Amino acid sequence: MQDGQQSLNENSPVKGFNRRLIIGAFVIVLAIAYLTVNGLRDNATYYLEINEVLAKSSDLDEQRIRMGGKVLPGSISIDTQNLIYDFQIHQDGQSVTVHYQGTTPDIFGDDIHVIIEGKMQDNGIFHADILTAQCPSKMVARVEQTNLEKPPHK
After folding, report:
1. For the chain, what is the domain count?
2. How confident is the model at residue 88 (pLDDT cuts 50, 70, 90)?
3. Which of 32, 68, 72, 146 could form a disulfide with 88 if both were Cys (CB 3.0 to 4.6 A apart)?
């Protein structure tokens, strides 16, 4: 009797269904993990300093990166008709030419710290599709002219 029950349990449709359910769930979990990892890897944007971008420019072919620097005074060229901006950003004595098409923040200008996101081209020009400007710190002390003469004593 026990042999009959044991063989019935091994071949029962419920046990087969559970096994298929577990295998199906495992395959779905693997597929979701694979898609998540690949999606994160493809959309990853690395922040690099200007010196790193210049040193690795040949290795950055079509890789999306983010970098920051100050706009080099006098380097901004604007095509107002097409909203095309060509300028240079600099940091620690090194600079990169940037090409950007789109609207810019109100404070964009000379000596403003910007963060750009895009791809470095073979010609050494960084094609940015995102441009943000950092507001100057409100904590910087203002230098005020003061009268160094002492007020007369009464």
Report:
1. 2
2. very high
3. 72
